[in-house]
Specification:
The structure is a homodimer. Chain A has nine helices and 13 strands. Chain A has a five-stranded mixed sheet with strand order 3-2-1-4-8. Chain A folds into two domains: about 130 residues, Nucleotidyltransferase, domain 5, CATH 3.30.420; about 170 residues, ATPase, nucleotide binding domain (Nucleotidyltransferase, domain 5, 2-Layer Sandwich), CATH 3.30.420.40.
């Protein structure tokens, strides 16, 4: 009986979401824990994660599970490692043997790791908006910008297991913003949740236009900008349009690479799709060669945000 | 006996190369014909091509061949068509049912079409520098800039058969040069043979530096620039370094997509690799996230130029 369950784990920059999943893709129980551990604290995080897994497994009356699938930034499918993840302090600049550590802590249970965006793509392909598609690209717009690329029905891992780092392709070549990865001008520096917040801060310095964003005390977040847009704030709406434009320009490059049927938007910023979609689609089509103009679908995830990543990660474990 | 031979055809912007190939990948005889036919003259070109195929087949004492494989710009593997090829006047803005036309003309022989760069990648994987590799990108630097992407040992065709148009990804976002495809700033507009010649013309206007290129009467070609570089001309060498830099910046984006083991340079400009390689590799590594820095090989094709495309195309036909 306990062979019928796996655990899916979605490790994000702020939290890790853990769920127990059955064969039908139903999440039986789930929980979020803090993932913001510091340098050298990978071990502490693994202990907290495993303790939560034990707790959830026990909660539904199981003794063990068939396997654990993990989606994590810079997760390596081939090696089971998390390698130099710029958004995880405990995995920055080092190689963390994550699958091995968890498996050891949990008495040898089979543990598989992949890029969090690859996991989300698997979830979307199995249960979501990309159901039935063989060629699509998943773009996750969260704390960072990740990507899961599916070609011919298979997730692309590449030579070393790290394929699909589209958040670190170059969006702005000249005087680009510094990115968490150490480079400049990355797509992530403009179109992640933090990137959008940086745009707001930049615009408020460079422009004198009125905006209710100016009334916000403390650090502006992408949520603040969304709320302002909802109230009709012109600058907030323009920030999302600018973000959409940068995404669309790069999406055209991605289409030229793998000719996908669709690009699926996922993550926090995908909720602002009503503000970014038009400029994104326009910019993409302007930058596509004629054979693709108007032919590539941009869709938003059909899965509940926490579910997609957990389900995708769990699919690895079967 | 005649079942043991196929025909490989490489359609370029200037010429088409045709070869009869045996199972061991030996080209038994080959010939080049003009491919510069005008608007509405696809039929004429097909007739000339088929006449040459008949001539070659007859020459080695065969009655027929097992199949014909064709590499052509904007060739569609799924449909057997050439669709809106900006470098072929007879296929610009229209869909040419190329495989069907040739098969009909030659009494029903099986005919397969793919992108010329995909064909070259197949040739390189089977017989050349990418032998044994499962993940690599072939970049063809000729009249245009093409690409053949291999992931997990398979050529990437994408949803519609047109994947791998990396020559039309954006190299220069602001005030980019017009490209033959109708867009601006494409990689092809800077790093094809004609792109390099355009750089020379631009630099001679913008700079007052001396160069033996200024003595050339008539239109400057990439060959002239190569010859000048060989004579130690500083501007000519800098033109290649600039070309390498633009390639390297974009290669970093391509690596972030599919994490290839190597990028293989092919075509006329690859002969100038001694002038472009350092700036290319430096620019690529500067633009890669740390996990790939210094790890992606840039190599030049190991096959004779005409052979790779013919062999690759022929591999389709078996």
């Amino acid at each position: 009986m306990e062979k019928e369950y796996v655990v899916g784990v979605d490790v994000g920059g702020q939290t890790a979401k853990i769920g127990v999943v059955n064969r039908r893709g139903e999440i039986l129980c789930q929980k979020s824990i803090d993932s913001k551990y510091g340098k050298g604290e990978a071990d502490k995080f693994v202990k907290a994660l495993c303790s939560t897994i034990r707790e959830l497994v026990k909660k539904i009356g199981l003794e063990s599970v068939n396997g654990i699938g993990i989606g994590a930034p810079d997760g390596n499918f081939y090696k089971g490692t998390i390698e130099d993840a710029s958004n995880l302090q405990w995995a920055k600049g080092i190689i963390v043997p994550f699958a091995e550590m968890i498996s050891k802590e949990l008495g040898g249970v089979k543990t598989v790791v992949t890029n969090d965006a690859n996991a989300a793509a698997m979830g979307e392909m199995t249960y979501g908006a990309a159901k039935g598609m063989k060629d699509f690209i998943m773009i996750t717009l969260g704390t960072g910008v990740g990507s899961g690329i599916v070609i011919g029905g298979n997730v692309v891992y590449g030579h070393d297991g790290f394929a699909g780092e589209l958040g670190h392709t170059c969006a702005v070549r000249t005087n680009g913003r510094e990115c968490g990865c150490g480079k400049k001008g990355c797509l992530e520096a403009y179109t992640s949740a933090t990137g959008v917040a940086r745009t707001a801060k930049e615009w408020m310095v460079n422009s004198l236009k009125p905006s209710i964003l100016r009334d916000i005390k403390g650090d502006i977040t992408s949520k603040d900008i969304y709320d302002a847009a909802e109230k009709g704030d012109k600058m907030a709406i323009e920030i999302f349009e600018y973000t959409g434009r940068i995404l669309g320009e790069k999406f055209a490059d991605f289409v030229a690479f793998s000719a996908p049927e669709a690009i699926v938007l996922f993550g926090g910023l995908a909720h602002a799709s009503k503000y970014i979609m038009k400029s994104l689609t326009d910019a993409m089509n302007e930058n596509l060669i004629s054979l693709w103009k108007g032919k590539v679908k941009i869709i938003t995830s059909a899965l509940k945000e926490s579910d997609a990543a957990i389900l995708g990660a769990s699919a690895l474990a079967w």
